[in-house]
Amino acid sequence: MHPTIRAGFLLGASVAAWTLLMATSGFYKHPTLLYLFWMVIPIQIGILIHFLRLSAPTTGYGRQVWTGVSISLLGSMLIFANSYYLTAVQFPHYFQDLEVLGRQLMAAKGLSPDQIEAVVRAQAPLQTPRASAFAGAIGTVVTGFITSVVAAIWLRKK
């Protein structure tokens, strides 16, 4: 299997596994453990740097960036599918749980009930399986692009 495809599948599977762990453990319902979800970013950066380092001896800057973006695009497709499945099928109350937690956190920060309602209403369009999965996919591609642009400076064939 081509290394770019292997890396894309590894990225998608790794992020999917972490997301599944966060959901099945209930960490996403805990006020402090919720932020562990963002470990998906170092996971992605680590996978990209590893595979870009492997291709560095034979590829220049542009090809390195393209490889990183390609890995991220493939991974993002798997991440989208996993996220949609988890929030639409396996954990259908995921967004309601997040809303309850969000209300508690905002109340603890001293926001008024009206302010809390305004925030919840503003976030509502993004609190759907499709929107959340799409945001994850876009975030994966953007993170992959930025990581590749920076990493390729040091890792490319010179």
Description:
- By secondary structure, this protein is mostly helical.
- The protein has one domain.
- It is 77% helix and 0% strand.
- The protein is built from six helices and no strands.
- α1 runs antiparallel to α2, α1 packs parallel to α3 and α3 runs antiparallel to α6.
- The longest helix has 30 residues.
- It is elongated and about 60 Å long.
- The relative contact order is 0.18.
Q: What are the key terms here?
A:
single chain; 158 residues; mainly alpha
Alpha-carbon Rg, integer: 18 Å
Largest sheet: none
Q: How would the global form be characterised?
A: elongated
Strand content: under 5%
Mean pLDDT, all residues: 91
Number of helices: 6
Chain-wise SSE layout:
Layout: H1 3-25, H2 40-55, H3 61-90, H4 94-108, H5 113-123, H6 129-155
Concise synopsis of the structure shown:
The chain has helices spanning 3-25, 40-55, 61-90, 94-108, 113-123, 129-155.
